[in-house]
Structures
1.
Amino acid sequence: MAIFTMSGLVAALAGVLFAARFGAVRGATAIGFELEIITIVLLGGVSIFGGSGTMVGVVLSTFLVLNLSNGMDLATINSNIQKGIIGALLILSVLVPNLAQRWRERRRRGAASGVATASPAAA
């Protein structure tokens, strides 16, 4: 229950800050931010399949995505290409942890079945 309360408090604070910045309150003001927000959260280490993540990772990924977006704006890259690059970053942030997990499981199964994994140093 405390998490839902805290989530509502943070959402209310974000709404107040958004209204203070733009001087208006409309329900459709933040449409289009979903791609960036989902990318930031997943890139920050929060699993799409549930589990846990860290606030430090999310904050660092926020700085990364914001700096990337700002740099693309300064380089006058088309907004559609910017969305494509952010989308590719989203795909990578989902694929890389899943591939790493599969690799770890495959390696663990190989070690458990008695198959020796040769390291380059041993050869």
Note: The chain has a mean pLDDT of 84.
2.
Amino acid sequence: MISTPEGKLIFYRNYSSIQQSLFEDFAFSLPQSMKKDSQHTFAIHGQYRLIYLPIEGMLLSLITCKNSNILEDIDSVAQMKEIVSSIIGPQPDETSIFENYVDLALAFDDMVNLSSRNAISKTQISALLEMESNNEKMHNAMQESKEKETMRKAEEEARKIERTKKVQDMVEKELKQIDKTIKDYSGKIPNLGDADKETPKRKVSDVPQTHDSTHTSQTGSSRKGIQLGKKPEKKTPILGSKTTTHKPSGSQETGRDEIMEEAEHVVFNPLNEEVRLIVDEKMSGEIGLSGSYTRFELKGTIGLFIENPDLHYFNINTNNVSGLKHLSMKLPPNFDRTVWNKGVLAPKSKNTSLPKRTLVETVKYALTFNSFDEAVPFNISIWLAGPQVQIEIEFNENQSFFKGFQNLTVHFRKLYGHDFNVSEADNSNYNMDNRYLVWNIPHLNSDTPSASIIIDFESKVTEDEVFPADIELTSNSPVLDLKVNSVVTEEGREVKFSLDKVLSAKDFHIA
């Protein structure tokens, strides 16, 4: 233990069953037990022997039993005094002891093992303490590294939030500009329904007054009437205009009813298509950093949009695509599956009522395959070489589902916080308007089977600093090669139609 000459216990290390209160008694009684002008360095306290040495205002004591070897005990205390002096300095005080209590405890532990003395020298103890110090430095370095990594992630998150806010501001600004443009255009287009508007009412004061007894005197609120014996004239609606039912005004509810009737009844413009068909396919997947696919899916729908509200039952004659072995198809219950096997898309019953001016899903399908190699549209290879990243995308000519792609883009959103340059972009182009890299491949097919890009950074990068990346594409060449020959009503009238095809991918990642 280490105590003051006044009997205050500062530090102790216990290797036996002695209670802490007894150590305090040792420290308190030691100054009274010391004999002045005596060369003895030990004192007796009951059944215990206290061997002590002064250290510049402090007392270093070893507590043993009476039958221990006093010569070895004195040598142990002397050796420990040198070690304590080297740890806490030549002039120890309470502050220096508290600051170095860990090293003192380790030194005591190296000196004593299971109440027995270890045959160890000061040099060996110093070496052990140095090793412990190195371990502490390594721990502190690791802790500092974790703190720096946490701060870096916090800064990246802050930059990401700032970037998101800027993008939202840009989108909001563009939407406001689009609204303004639409309003400007709408002000320039003549309203065909203006011909239906009533002429302005004349004031009572503008109508010549007569004093014929057969006429009713006019009041301040002029009213329109219907002359007996004549029918009111009906106005013929103009194509593209809304039919209006004139009801007497005078209440807020009546005006609301007129507006609702105008909005509900829309006259179909015969110049437009009566039926629109949309083949909408969505592709998704995930590519590992090794270039192999971990997920790939393709799902599609054939949407039906009826523009003419007076069109009820009709047949859509298409090429027979129901027998394709790689496409699993499903038809809604209200459509005839028997005729669909022959390529005819039609409601099951003539009494089937389909929603008008609403997109209706008629056929759902999915691409089925045995292995990724026979179905994936393209392959991606990634090479890391220190501060450089090379990426190549290749059209998969082993598959027979996709003919090609247009507007294939890869969004490297994780690069917004890095400094980099693009040194090469083969069969492709790029832009960094959004602070991150967008790699665009205009065409990827058998004629242009590959494209590549090389990105140079200032220092070495890892895969985690570049990926994940998002893949997006749009194309008018879907897997389902649907062709519509005609659309015919029950009476045999051919209906004007349109067919749109689109293949898109949003949920596609390199990760």
Note: The domain at 2-130 is CATH 3.30.450.60 (Beta-Lactamase).
